[in-house]
Amino acid sequence: MADLNELSEKLNGIRKEIKTELEKLESSKSVFEYKKTIFDSKTGKVGSLMREMGKIPNDMKAEYGKRVNEIKTWAQDLFDEMDEKFKAEEMRLRYESEQIDVTMPSIKPKHGYLHPNTLIRNQIVDIFGSMGFEIYEGSEIETDYYNFTALNTPDDHPARDMQDTFYLSDKFLLRTQTSAGQIHVMEAKQPPIKIISPGKVFRSDDDATHSPMFSQMEGLVVDKGITLCDLKGMLDVFVQKIFGEGTSTRLRPSYFPFTEPSVEVDVSCFQCQGKGCKLCKGTGWIEVLGAGVVNKKVLEGCGIDSDVYSGFAFGIGIERIAMLKYGINNIKHLFESDLRVLEQINE
Ligand code: DAH
To answer: Residue whose CA is closest, atom 13 of ligand 1?
Structure first.
């Protein structure tokens, strides 16, 4: 470097170049990158100036050092200023893009529903619970004795043909009816007895209204002076609560080995109010459950004195009630977990 004039010229050139380059930059990141090249101690326009000290005549060294430091500070300030400016703008844009409109309606999280079977089961449990019934939950595997024999259905009884049974061995089977629970309860306890027993039952049966596995709710009341009238009165309350006020029941003679007399219970059609429609097949009535007065033989078999006590029993098909109430025409819809079906039913 010959003289200070030449140095000034060189430094002014660098300043000008930095200014021009900075004007082209558009982000804090590009400022950072550019600054790195300028301050690089080997190749940088400003960073490498000190390396030239060796070539500077001694009497100029002090002035050279001073000027180099000046340009360093100048460049540093300039980069800081640019960096700050870009960062402020970048922050503003980020806030703008991430802005949350708290007045927007929220996205509703998808939530699950209770299965129609569970809904009906809960409703039935609530209704009978409010009438003072206790819950007895039996087991799905039963012995032949509890499922049939003790319910007055001995080995050679033709009623066994009414239910196609899944036998597990000579003695054990999958219960075909929750009625088996009646025997366990009556064996364990003397009257007064007032229980419902919900649970799964199994039969080798498969069509639009039958499934090999389905659910029932058994009911049993045993006490002094219980008659069919008590059953009728209680069922009227039940159907009004489950199918709506204004519905009533009708008893038709039927046959079950464990009840005498036995009845089929119809409910007045809750869709046409008894006028006759597709649901009730024009009759105004829909069959909903089986019931009857507990057969004396069954009471005696459980050690209950049938001269002192009497009782009534009933068995409700949960799926049947769910299908009627929610207008489901195929029992399979209740087991296929198709959300399009299940989402329509939520109470
Ligand atoms: N267990 C019978 C069935 O599965 C239903 C039934 C009928 C239960 C009459 C009862 C009853 O308790 O009294 O078909």
So the answer is: 291
